[in-house]
């Protein structure tokens, strides 16, 4: 179900230096009920985002002044945007670009030329997933970690650890089934969903980033198979 114009409608910030793409996206997004703002480059996006408070940011990679990768990193460094969905829009379909995008903290990666109907379906999936997640009130306490699935919060010995949404969802999913081994494709399907096309290598990037924040011992690599949460 798509959002409708109201105080609860999702806010989307479109960041792209191509005015035709911005116009196309703004038209289609507003038609679906989203509240939209735009910025022509990364530098301007960093000014607009704190004022606008977007729920989702559509971010081009190749832009003047400040590219999308650096913009994403700077946004993720701000506390209020650690859990904001950031989706890259780019004509650069090489694998290294996708890995760089996720490494910078992106949630998704969409190649140009953009197909509006496919993009709207993708965004609706994110909104739907948010609503489904908000209905879950569950806390996992395991191996020194407290994972609050309602508040998207992780605590280790009383210290709060901030994780972007996809990293949090990955950790919570693995912790919910300790000792069970999940393959990369299974993790992609459960965390990113069928509506999102990403590389299996994306899982490795997110596992590495989670390990950097919560410690290496929580998520164990099972060579040739995938990952499991270590409850020992």
Automatic annotation (TrEMBL):
An annotated GO cellular component: cytosol
Modified residues (4-aspartylphosphate): 60
Gene Ontology BP terms: regulation of DNA-templated transcription
Record-annotated Response regulatory domain positions: 11-127
DNA-binding region range list: 137-231
Top-level taxonomic group: Bacteria
OmpR/PhoB-type domain ranges (all copies): 137-231
GO molecular function: phosphorelay response regulator activity; transcription cis-regulatory region binding
Keywords for this protein: DNA-binding, Phosphoprotein, Transcription, Transcription regulation, Two-component regulatory system
Task of the protein: This protein is a positive regulator for the phosphate regulon. Transcription of this operon is positively regulated by PhoB and PhoR when phosphate is limited.
Protein name per its UniProtKB record: Phosphate regulon transcriptional regulatory protein PhoB
Protein source organism: Hymenobacter cellulosilyticus
């Amino acid at each position: 179900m798509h959002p409708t114009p109201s105080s609860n409608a999702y806010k989307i910030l479109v960041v792209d230096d191509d005015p035709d793409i911005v116009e196309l996206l703004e038209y289609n997004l507003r038609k679906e009920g989203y509240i939209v703002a735009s910025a022509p480059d990364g530098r301007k996006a960093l000014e607009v985002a704190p004022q606008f408070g977007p729920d989702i940011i559509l971010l081009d990679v190749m832009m003047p002044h400040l590219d999308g990768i650096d913009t994403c990193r700077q946004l993720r460094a701000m506390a209020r945007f650690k859990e904001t969905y950031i989706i890259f829009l780019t004509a650069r379909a090489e694998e290294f670009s996708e890995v760089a995008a996720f490494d910078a903290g992106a949630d998704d990666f969409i190649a140009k030329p953009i197909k509006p109907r496919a993009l709207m379906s993708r965004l609706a999936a994110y909104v739907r997933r948010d609503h489904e997640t908000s209905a879950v009130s569950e806390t996992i306490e395991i191996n020194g970690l407290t994972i609050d699935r309602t508040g998207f919060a992780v605590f280790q010995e009383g210290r709060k650890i901030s994780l972007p949404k996809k990293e949090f969802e990955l950790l919570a999913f693995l912790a919910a089934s300790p000792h069970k081994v999940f393959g990369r494709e299974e993790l992609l399907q459960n965390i990113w969903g069928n509506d999102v096309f990403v590389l299996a290598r994306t899982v490795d990037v997110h596992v590495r980033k989670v390990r950097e924040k919560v410690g290496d011992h929580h998520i164990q690599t099972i060579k040739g198979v995938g990952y499991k949460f270590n409850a020992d």
